[in-house]
Design a protein that fits this description.
Elements: H1 13-25, E1 36-37, H2 47-50, E2 59-64, E3 66-67, E4 73-74, E5 76-77, E6 80-91, E7 97-107, E8 118-125, E9 133-140, H3 144-155, H4 167-170, H5 173-176
Parallel strand pairs: 1-2
Antiparallel strand pairs: 2-9, 3-4, 5-6, 6-7, 7-8, 8-9
Length: 177
């Protein structure tokens, strides 16, 4: 079963926790056209090497965090790292804390040319032991102008070029080749 054209994955924060993250932590799978597993931390994991740099779509992935120590997470990606900017508590409709939405920006001081302005929302459960796995929404803020131009061009054609891959499948393609 594939996702129909025009589908956009736009869950509420509560849905991210209740319908996706908690089931993932309990061992259930998510439809692969919606979200894929992907390691975004490590030696060759700059975001532009994993995700399609010119897309203004959000890339939804789930990953296991790298524990540096009992209280610290290692969020390095080759010569750069994901820098924490803000963290918000996420509560369900009854006002109970269900997890956290942490906002990060990617920084690489060694990179001479810009490969975009990458941001990430990382969703983690509040329960100890279940917060090793997270769901991340990652996107390139600078890709909007390029993607808008491509959309106008695609409207004039019946089908997109054969190199087009749905945004959710673009994640980790390079990692699996």
């Amino acid at each position: 079963m594939s996702i129909p054209p025009g589908f956009r994955f736009l869950p509420t924060k509560e849905e991210i926790f209740v319908c996706y993250l908690k089931p993932l932590c309990d061992g259930y799978m998510i439809h692969p056209d919606v979200m894929v597993p992907c390691n975004i931390y490590g030696t060759d994991c700059e975001p532009w090497k994993i995700f399609y740099k010119d897309s203004d779509d959000s890339f939804w992935i789930f990953t296991k965090l790298n524990q540096k120590s009992k209280s610290r997470i290692d969020r390095t990606a080759r010569d750069g790292c994901w820098l924490g900017r803000r963290a918000y508590e996420v509560k369900n409709k009854d006002g109970e804390l269900i997890g956290y939405d942490k906002y990060f920006t990617y920084s690489n001081k060694k990179q001479e040319k810009s490969n975009g302005s990458w941001i990430m929302h990382e969703f983690s459960l509040k329960e100890q032991g279940l917060n090793d796995f997270v769901i991340c929404e990652i996107r390139n803020k600078e890709a909007g102008a390029v993607a808008t131009e491509k959309r106008v061009h695609l409207r004039d054609e019946e089908t997109p070029d054969s190199d087009h891959v749905p945004s959710t499948k673009k994640a980790c393609i390079a990692r699996n080749e």
